[in-house]
Design brief:
Number of helices of chain B: 5
Shape of chain B: elongated
Number of helices of chain A: 12
Shape of chain A: globular
Distance between the termini of chain B: 92 Å
Distance between the termini of chain A: 30 Å
Oligomer: heterodimer
Largest sheet of chain A: none
Number of domains of chain A: 1
Strand content of chain B: 25-35%
Radius of gyration of chain A: 20 Å
CATH topology of the largest domain in chain B: Pectate Lyase C-like
CATH architecture of the largest domain in chain B: 3 Solenoid
Helix content of chain A: over 70%
Structural class of chain A: mainly alpha
Amino acid sequence: MHYIWKEWKESIRGKGLWLSLSIIILISVSILFSSSVLSFDKGFYVLLINLFDTLIYFIPISCIFIGAFSIFQEKEQKTLIMLLTKKDSYPGFLFKKSLALSSVVLFPIVAWFFIYLFLLKFYFQIDFSSYSIFVVSIVCLALIFLQLGVALGSICRSRMQMTGSAICIWFYFFFLHDFVLLSILPDVTYDNVKWFSVAFFLNPLQAIRMFLETGMGVYSFGHMSRLLQSFLWVKPGFFLAGNLIAWLAISFLTAIFFHRKEAFE
Amino acid sequence: MKKKLLLLFFFSLVSFSVPEKKWAAESLQVAIDSAKEGAVLTLADHTYKGNIVITKKIEIIGSAHTVIQGDGNGNVISIKAPHVKLSHLTVTHSSMNRNSAEEYAGIKIYSNGNTIDHITISDCFHGIYLSQAHHNTISFNNINGMGNGEIAAQGNGLHVYYANNNTLTHNRIEGTRDGMFFEYANHNSIIANTISGTRYGLHYMYSDANDFEKNVFTMNMGGAAVMNSNSIRMKNNQFVFNYGNRSFGLLLLQANHINIEDNLFYLNERGLYIDQSTGNIIRHNRIIQNQIGIELWASSSQQLFTLNRISENTIPAVTLGGKGTDNSWSLHGKGNDWGSTFPLPDLNQNGIGDFPITYRSSLHQLMEGQELTPLFLKSPAIKIYEKINALLQKEDIMFTDPHPLVTGKGNSIPALFLVCTALFAAVILLKGRQWLCIIFGKNGRNR
């Protein structure tokens, strides 16, 4: 608990969390105003999809930076050494730190989207289950990229190295992963489509988007061909769960095995 | 004494409630049969048992809680006489049998000149079925299907079969197989209906010369599928958020001489999907924020696109299956407004861009050969893929608009990015060269 309290105090004194949150608020409010002309009953879904499509430009990169700098700060201020010599092992520290970081970042985001729901009520007919799916999607997105940031913060030795790596990770998930898949797309057949599917849903952005759009019932997979059925061999919720577990585990293990306790200015 | 009173109360409750229901069940058909030609029957807030067959000109008016409940073995209400009027009723529980010789409905109309309005229909195979019925007015009805993408086990909201000169207006259909189904039905007016959550909002075959105006097709697997038909007018309709791997706003398949004007195609997987069609005019529509604005197969010819606003689509237009013949992207020197997709100078300020635009793309090869391609249309990687293929000269010309329009209108997304960028820039300027470190580390302390 004191990790959460420590993280909270550090975060409210810092500006990263507030800047990220203010961007989320700014985007949500602008999209709400621009969507107010949409129909009362269906406009809600249009707004959520548009909002998600815009937020994925900001939340991943913000979360990578917040996660990475939070760990790096522990190294830089030598508090990491103090904590480790006191009682914690590195995995123990990393687990508690990740938990604290996730709580501190996710709490204001979830709180904002709770307030946002009240604003939405003035414009649209609310579908609470769809809204919960939207919030879960945002939480998963933040969680995965926070943990990737934590791994970066553990591995990197300097701020420059860390900033460069954060941008590389963002670029990979945003552009490179799908680009590679697009390049091999002509060779996808019924026999290998399941492997392709695994690779496709390994991108958190695609797994979360598919979960959101099918969960809200806006993306229809009706009349699927054999190829498409084979591509979607489990429900999108399972793909997301797999993706979440895979990336949290990979980030955590990478951070443990390749961490460096020292940092250079 | 108390026990006796309680017993008396119970028996009186039973004896009064059950016969009344029975009376309601039996008496509606009797009342209809015994009414005079042209009589008006006003029904109370009861549940009346069907099925009902109307064989004379009559008007039946219900109220807020008047329910006509079928026995599940046929049509709940069959109208076999002309000039019948039904209003303010809830109709429920028709047969759902798919193996019978007849397809059943909540209300099945076999005659002409009837008026059906303010009816709520649920738990029925088809909602309202017009079978060789002409000059009917179907308006302000609410038809609810099973939803959840159920297709085979249920019928259509409005089923129009060999029926001409009908007016279908202000109906609301949700969760049925197809919202409105037309087969061999000509000269009908379909105005201001709202259809959502169906397979095709409009499924339209072998029907000519119908007018569609101000209808809204939202969140269907396909907005409207117009097939094997000619000379239809589609004006001021909205095709919004018909979104899925195979979805479209409007499909024209072997549909010729269709006039598509002033419609909105917004957030669909494909705005317009045109295949094996000839001589259609697509004018003054807004085709915005779709994954593919226009998907035009080479088997289509003589399509005319003019004065449309086609902007913010991932792919504005794509030609598949080879080069189409005689398709035209401008008329009388006026092309289409491509918004921010193709920024153009207009130095003489005549509203027409100073040079033609040609859109090249390599995605058509992927789209023709691989059905998983639409899954990537929202990915930012698409832009990189296109750029790299442009460098490798693997692109083909999708269309050339010789006279693109320049309206100078901005859009909201760049404005939003501008605001966010300005915010970031302000933070950088205020906090100096190590802004990133100060923001994300050091507890916000300046060094």
